[in-house]
Task: inverse folding
């Protein structure tokens, strides 16, 4: 599904990713944890094609094709979805129209209006998302939890094959986290070849969406790989004891 080989990325002349490599196969769930500033969110933005992040060397291969030079919209059409850490609001663009336009960009024929209304209403109800969120401008007046639920609503309707969850758990209370994870797990059951990359600080979300692999990232590269036990070890002992690094240092 996604293979990243020795990726080096700089932002404003500062190196963020340092020979970063990962191999995610069809249907696999991977999680990345690491100290603040170590490059986790940078990784998500680079995979999605953010132009503020310059690839110095290395390759991003998606379904057999190198996508280093593809625009963000083309990556999305191919099935990559980034659930953002801080979803923005967009005045003047209705949520439902935005989602319908995105769906049609991935189809040969436009989705029927009745089919779309039926699907979006059912998925919003499944997430306990207020119906007015569907017709409101994107995330305008929405709480942090509503914004995250809206991201998951988009996943359910756009049906991506590779999902990046960048700190989905931030801004969600326990009940809301459980609800969005139930929706995501249902989607993954219905689409077993879908792969997921979870970026998080805490293992709570990993207890709901169970990863096959957990990676610890320091200084822009993966330094340790395990399973859910590694995430629990990090929560218990911190990064310092788990990998003998300074708790006070911010890794760039």
Result:
């Amino acid at each position: 599904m996604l293979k990243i080989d020795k990726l080096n990325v700089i932002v404003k002349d500062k190196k963020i990713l340092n020979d970063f490599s990962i191999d995610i196969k069809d249907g696999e769930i991977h999680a990345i944890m690491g100290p603040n500033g170590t490059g986790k969110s940078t990784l998500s933005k680079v995979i999605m094609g953010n132009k503020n992040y310059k690839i110095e060397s290395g390759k991003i291969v998606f379904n057999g094709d190198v996508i280093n030079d593809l625009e963000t919209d083309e990556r999305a059409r191919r099935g990559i979805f980034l659930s953002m850490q801080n979803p923005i609001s967009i005045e003047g663009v209705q949520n439902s129209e935005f989602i319908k336009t995105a769906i049609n960009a991935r189809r040969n024929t436009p989705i029927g209006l009745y089919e779309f209304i039926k699907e979006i209403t059912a998925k919003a109800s499944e997430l306990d998302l207020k119906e007015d969120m569907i017709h409101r401008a994107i995330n305008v007046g929405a709480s942090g939890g509503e914004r995250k639920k809206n991201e998951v609503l988009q996943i359910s309707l756009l049906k991506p094959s590779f999902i990046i969850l960048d700190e989905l758990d931030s801004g969600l209370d326990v009940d809301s986290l459980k609800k969005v994870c139930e929706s995501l797990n249902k989607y993954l059951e219905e689409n077993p070849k879908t792969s997921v990359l979870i970026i998080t600080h805490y293992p709570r979300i990993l207890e709901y969406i169970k990863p096959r692999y957990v990676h610890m990232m320091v200084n822009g590269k993966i330094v340790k790989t395990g399973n859910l036990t590694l995430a629990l070890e990090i929560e218990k002992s911190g990064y310092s004891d788990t990998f003998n690094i300074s708790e006070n240092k911010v890794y760039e």
